[in-house]
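The instructor's notes for this session suggest beginning with a concrete chain rather than abstract definitions. Hand out the sequence below and ask the class to guess, before any prediction is shown, which regions might be ordered.
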Amino acid sequence: MYLSPESEHWLDWFHITMRLTVMGQLAKGLVHEPAAASLDTDPGDKEEGAPIDATLVATQLERVKWFLWHGNVPRALEVLADLDDDLDLLPEPGDRGRKLLKTLREFQGYIAVNRSYIPNYGDRYRHGEAISTAFAESTINQVVSKRMVKRQQMRWSQRGAHHLLQVRTKVLNGDLQATFGRWYPGLRTEPTGEREELRKAA
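After discussion, reveal the predicted structure:
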């Protein structure tokens, strides 16, 4: 905010959904955890040590997602707090239960700290406004990571990396042949199929 005070600041929806997805996966493993009475609508119906209702946990996480999508942070935090209480009451939570509780509390803090940067994503989406920078991350992965991650076992100078990224961007945009055509007017034009193979090779 100090660097660009005139900019609009909001939390990336992609990062919110990724965290909720992780918690949803952890919740699926709760079927083998001991039960907390408060997770059931009628505690008298559930026997001591019966499997926890993972479906109910998943439903609560979906409610959190719905509230956040509509910018209703107070209600989302209420549901998260209820889930926190329910999971905290597990008599002897297993690994997944403990991990879910830890992840849930981290997510609560993340939302609480950034609550002023959570807009009504649904409204923004309906009006064609940005709600995520995932497209930029995807572009970086396409242009940079495919050629420059450590597993490629390549070493690049700053100048070499700069030139490679220019070439790769032109290949992905389909502009490389036109560029060479301007440099070398007699360059033979490749059929579309061969151009596609070049794109894949890049």
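Then share the key points. The chain has two domains: 13-126, 146-201. Residues 28 and 55 are 8 Å apart (CA to CA).
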